[in-house]
């Protein structure tokens, strides 16, 4: 059977893309703004040996399958082809159409960008031990600071931005996000802030520069810490801002006035989240606020992570997502009175769209920096995540809690005052 016929069987006869294969067969809409090209028999072996999203990812990352045009548009149009819930009968027919049992052997090794937990690279310690977490974080974040600059832009903020207006730029939205967090946790000059999982130090530097706060950030990525330390020095903020290459569990200081946890809970693991919140509560003064900002899932049904999914294999080894209700309940059970929660799902879709645009604009430089396979991995990952937020497969929640004092007073305003218009109104009263 021609590969074009297999494509139509898997993607559907009406898939609005152009398809071309090395056997000369073609399908789909000729001249479409999205073109799929199968370049070699190895792509067929990948698809036969791992039907669905993993097979497609392996074929694309390895360069045996190409996608010309916008990746987000391609994924949006090929939803059916990414389904992994094939029945045994469907798998048998697909195998037959691709050439029969001969395409199953020999097994084609995954691209080197794929990490199998407890195999090859991730052999250190039990899941979410300090050593294992350090290795997992290093896999994702120690790619190349220059590469991240290409993708993230000048802010070097690798978490969901918050867009104050639909036409705001990525940089404006990232600055607004950091300031929103600062206002929610009520930063004031002279306070001490702990920023857990601080990345390249964006929140730490914003708090120090804009609020006169003495801010400590910790990260398990050595490259992030070095970059942040240099940025702090260049900004002249050494007296207020500090970023350490350190596990949060090794922070010895206490009595912080506020804590920000931005994009780290996903790496903690569900079994460790209760201890995580209890640890942060113990670092906070009475009356202090803690904001947890993390990717969530719409509900708590099913496993908290897909062990064999693309994200776990290629991007975030050992990553786990929880529902916002469970997170809020767990925060509450470990000393935080929950005062506010909001879902920024649409904001993350816009953030990812901007990161995709940055990567596309810097594509040749990005490939030169990290190699074609890693650049392809990121192109697929960012576009796939954007689709996930658009379709409510994943969400992003900010949950604000306060550690009550012995008098049970929260110190919170009667109404939220962290939006700029509300803050101005409160100041004028």
Write the layout of secondary structure elements.
Elements: H1 3-11, E1 18-21, E2 26-28, E3 35-38, H2 41-49, H3 53-61, E4 65-68, H4 71-77, H5 88-98, H6 130-141, H7 145-152, H8 170-184, E5 192-196, H9 202-211, E6 214-219, H10 222-234, E7 241-245, E8 256-262, H11 265-268, H12 273-283, E9 284-296, H13 310-315, H14 324-333, E10 337-343, H15 345-361, H16 363-370, H17 372-390, E11 395-402, H18 420-428
Helix pairs in contact: 2-3, 4-17, 7-16, 8-9, 12-14, 15-17, 16-17
Describe this structure in words.
- The protein is of the alpha/beta class and 429 residues long.
- Helices cover 44% and strands 15% of the residues.
- It is built from 18 helices and 11 strands.
- A 7-stranded mixed beta sheet has the order 7-6-5-8-9-11-10, with helices on both faces. It has a 4-stranded mixed beta sheet with strand order 2-1-3-4.
- The chain is elongated, with a radius of gyration of 23 Å.
In short:
By secondary structure, this protein is an alpha/beta fold.
What brief labels describe this structure?
429 residues, four-stranded mixed beta sheet, disordered C terminus, alpha/beta
Shape: elongated
Residue-averaged pLDDT, rounded? Answer: 91
The tally of strands reads: 11
- Strand-residue fraction? 15-25%
- Poorly predicted regions are 117-123, 423-429
Helix content: 40-55%
- Going by helix content, strand content and strand pairing, the class is alpha/beta
**Strands ordered across the widest β-sheet:** 7-6-5-8-9-11-10
- Determine the number of helices (DSSP H or I, runs of at least 4 residues): 18
Reported for the largest beta sheet, the result is: 7 strands, mixed
The arrangement of helices and strands along the chain is: HEEEHHEHHHHHEHEHEEHHEHHEHHHEH
Radius of gyration, rounded? 23 Å
What is the end-to-end distance? 76 Å
């Amino acid at each position: 059977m021609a590969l074009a016929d297999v494509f139509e069987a898997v993607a559907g006869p009406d898939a609005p893309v152009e398809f071309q294969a090395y056997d000369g067969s073609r399908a789909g809409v000729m001249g479409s703004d999205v073109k799929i090209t199968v370049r070699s028999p190895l792509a067929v072996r990948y698809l036969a040996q791992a039907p669905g999203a993993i097979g497609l990812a392996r074929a694309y990352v390895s360069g045996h399958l190409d996608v010309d045009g916008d990746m987000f548009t391609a994924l949006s149009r090929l939803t059916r082809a990414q389904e992994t819930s094939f029945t045994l009968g469907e798998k048998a027919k697909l195998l037959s159409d691709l050439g029969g049992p001969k395409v199953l052997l020999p097994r084609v090794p995954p691209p080197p960008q794929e990490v199998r937990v407890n195999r090859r690279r991730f052999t250190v310690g039990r899941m979410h031990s300090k050593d294992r977490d350090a290795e997992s974080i290093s896999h994702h974040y120690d790619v190349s600071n220059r590469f991240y600059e290409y993708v993230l832009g000048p802010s070097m903020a690798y978490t969901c931005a918050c867009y104050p207006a639909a036409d705001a730029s990525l940089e404006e939205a990232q600055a607004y996000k950091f300031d929103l967090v600062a206002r929610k946790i009520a930063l004031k000059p002279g306070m001490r802030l702990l920023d857990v999982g601080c990345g390249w130090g964006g929140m730490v530097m914003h708090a120090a520069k804009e609020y006169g706060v003495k801010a400590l950030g910790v990260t398990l990525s050595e490259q992030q810490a070095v970059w942040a330390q240099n940025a702090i020095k260049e900004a002249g903020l050494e007296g207020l801002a500090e970023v350490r290459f350190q596990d949060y569990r090794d922070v010895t200081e206490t009595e912080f006035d506020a804590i920000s946890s931005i994009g780290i809970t996903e790496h903690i693991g569900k079994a460790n989240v209760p201890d995580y919140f209890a640890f942060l509560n113990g670092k906070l003064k009475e009356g202090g606020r803690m904001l947890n900002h993390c990717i969530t899932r719409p509900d708590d049904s099913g496993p908290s992570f897909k062990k064999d999914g693309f994200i776990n294999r290629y991007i975030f080894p050992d990553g786990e997502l929880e529902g916002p209700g469970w997170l809020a309940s767990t925060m509450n059970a470990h000393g935080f009175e929950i005062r506010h929660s909001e879902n920024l799902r649409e904001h993350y879709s816009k953030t990812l769209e901007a990161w995709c645009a940055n990567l596309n604009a810097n594509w040749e430089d990005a490939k030169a920096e990290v190699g074609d396979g890693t650049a392809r991995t990121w192109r697929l990952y960012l576009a796939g995540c954007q689709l996930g937020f658009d379709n409510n497969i994943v969400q992003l929640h900010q949950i604000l809690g306060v550690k009550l004092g012995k008098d049970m007073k929260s110190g919170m305003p009667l109404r939220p005052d962290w939006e700029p218009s509300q803050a101005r109104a409160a100041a004028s009263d």
